Amino acid sequence: MKIVDAKVVVTSPGRNFVTLKLTTDDGLTGLGDATLNGRELAVVSYLTDHVVPLLTGRDPHRIEDTWQYLYRGAYWRRGPVTMAAIAAVDVALWDIKAKAAGLPLYQLLGGASRERVRAYGHANGRDIPELLDSVRARLAEGYQAVRVQSGIPGLKAVYGVHSTDDGGAPVLHQQARPLVEDWDTDAYLRHTPTVFEAVRAEFGAELPLLHDAHHRLTPVQAARLGRDLEPYRPFWLEDCTPAENQEALRLVRRGTTTPLAVGEVFNTVHDYQTLISEQLIDYVRSAVTHFGGVTPLRKLLDFAAQFQIRSAVHGPEDISPVGMAAALHLDLAVHNFGIQEYSGHTPLTDEVFRHAYTFTDGHLHPGEAPGIGVELDEDLAAAHPYEAAYLPVNRLQDGTVHDW
Ligand code: GCO
Ligand code: MG
Q: Residues 270-298: pLDDT tens digits?
């Protein structure tokens, strides 16, 4: 078998998605997600200018060899643009291989280790009553685990509270110019335990509650927050510090037994070495889409498993249904599955990317269609062209740029 065509499709059915489509000489097609929120066109260029010309004529079955060829061959390693581009190729090749075998991808990854995959959804509120309503809405949708994010008194816009919560399309972070959010760490550290107290009082002790600090704290602040949340038994505290300084997590770990989840901005196993080998975290958060694909994420999860660290694959709205499907096959197959983030996509996005995966009673299943189980409607995709969009920036109240 040979790859005879490779094309990059950019579409914006509510938000931008970048998809690589490979076609083989016997007519099989494979899809891979290369969406990098806010920097989409950089990956499009990387793929069309530097990767697509290398793909035609290659044997699509040689997934490991193609991965190493693109990773080592580029010489300039790692980074989100490179790794998103390689991820798209990797997933498209797995899609083709599984279709050629007539099997859903999870069967090629060792088969199902579980019946279904537990998901967590997002609950957001500008204040605590609005957050409680949002948790109620997620529970009504079937979720059995919920991430809780609340506005902070005195601050006008903070992470996680922009999406519409009326059952309509999430519009998180889509701005033609970066929106400016404001931030005050002391106010956040005072407010967040009261948020957990209120949610526990309303929904009881059993509901798994997650929280994302989005890289905003110092290690000592993170340890303090982790400790203050301990009475409410959070499922995890996510991205408490900017974790490219892996050693910082040693300080956090010393101060709290709140479980820690890290890694959505990481691209390779090297970003995790200290965190995993010293057991400084409990969950790895990388997306298939930003980590170079199924091939390296499987290796990461096998490494993490030796340290009782579990998966929590990144799955916000900016991962396309193609990236989500790839994640679900991996989730179903690996032994050390933890939880899967899932917010769903707009109905229009689900039309552009028809998928076999399903969400029922708070759990996902990748489905039994051969390959990853996603089909791209290229005509509908073309009717929704790229729109410039940025993530927000974050400033302290004196104007200093802070981590977002
Ligand atoms: C999460 C994330 C996302 C990111 C987004 C940036 O845990 O889901 O923090 O919501 O902010 O992926 O593009
Ligand atoms: Mg996050």
A: 999 999 999 999 999 999 999 999 999 99
ipTM value > 0.85:
yes
Pick the closest to residue 44 from 76, 75, 79, 88 (CA basis): 88
**What's the 214 CA to ligand 2 centre distance in angstroms?**
6
The CATH architecture annotation of domain 108-370 reads Alpha-Beta Barrel (3.20)
For the chain, the domains span 3-104, 108-370
3-104: CATH, from 3.20.20.20, 3.40.640.10, 3.40.630.30, 3.30.390.10: 3.30.390.10
**Residues having C-beta closer than 5 Å to ion ligand 2:** 212, 264
Among the options 191, 211, 214, 314, which is catalytic?
A: 214
Of how many residues is the chain composed?
404
**Residue 214 annotated to the active site:** yes
Atom of ligand 1 nearest to the CA of 238: 7
Please say if 159 is a catalytic residue: yes
Ligand 1 pocket, residues with Cβ under 6 angstroms: 37, 212, 214, 264, 316, 318, 341, 391
Pick the catalytic residue from 71, 106, 143, 159.
159
Taking the alpha carbons at both ends of the chain, their separation in whole angstroms is: 45
Cβ neighbors of 10 (< 8 A, separation 6 or more) are 16, 17, 18, 19, 40, 41, 44, 385, 386
- Evaluate if pTM is beyond 0.80: yes
